[in-house]
Amino acid sequence: MKAKLATFIQQQWTRTGVWHLLLIPLSWLFAALSNLRRLAYQYSLFPSFRLPVPVIVVGNISVGGTGKTPLVIWLVKQLQAAGFHPLIVSRGYAAYADVVDIRQVQPGSDPAIVGDEPLLMAQRTQVPVWIGRERAKVAQAALVNSPECNVIVSDDGLQHYALQRDIEIAVVDAARLFGNRRLLPAGPLREPVARLSEVDAVVMNGANGHEAGFYMQLVSHQLYNLKSPASTCALKVFEGQAVHAVAGIGNPQRFFTQLKSAGLEVIEHPFPDHHAFEASQLAFGDDVPVIMTEKDAVKCAAFAQPNWWVMPVEAELSPAFLPHVLSKLGV
Fold it and tell me: Which GO terms describe its molecular function (predicted)?
């Protein structure tokens, strides 16, 4: 039911109908309050914090998945290859994360406590990952614990102005773009589209070199078995077969489309973003293989079945993107 409601809302955000007349005044109020809040930070009416190392914020201006987490993972690995010692800060998305102000995420942490995306980033990057409600305080604590780190990457937080930043990267879904271009709740935007003119880089997820200056593609080279991760296979092994596709991400349709384009017969099972899975929800009553996203897999590993497969994705960025970021860091 939640997934259907989320899909319905996203569909309504692609157009402007009669019922939007009730929401547009609320969007104006949201815009006014957001602008006043940003000005309060700009003119030091609200405190903001400058850290002793560069801060890179990877975020977006819209609600829903745009591909921030794969980009963060890619960026952290590239920074490591360039000689940096990065750490990641994130809000975390879990009920317990609202209670615990600051916590380090370990590769074996409980996703119900630390959130699915922070856990995935910790597992994929092997760098310090810290979560908490106030990113500036989280980053300060992380630097005390890991003084060797010399650059911070913030997963999301474009609108978290309490943390001063050196580089802003905004990710845009090239397929959905900005919907009806209205702010919440009449549309999907957290900030106006004009905000993108102020960031250091806009990355179009799903675009190519002919459509955008900086573009990103999410690619998958092979699947791995969730119960026995050492067992891998190519996606084409399932070509022409029916599979249960499970996705509790911001844009499940992107995942389903990717499987369909590979020739699979997809039985779609969309769930709300950050959904806390239970084994019974994935008991489909047949022997049809299950394929899920890596973000969902970290929450399902404890009750994995032998025919459950995971499709990890890797971000591929336009060649000019990394030199652009490194130049901003003075490299």
Answer: ATP binding; lipid-A 4'-kinase activity
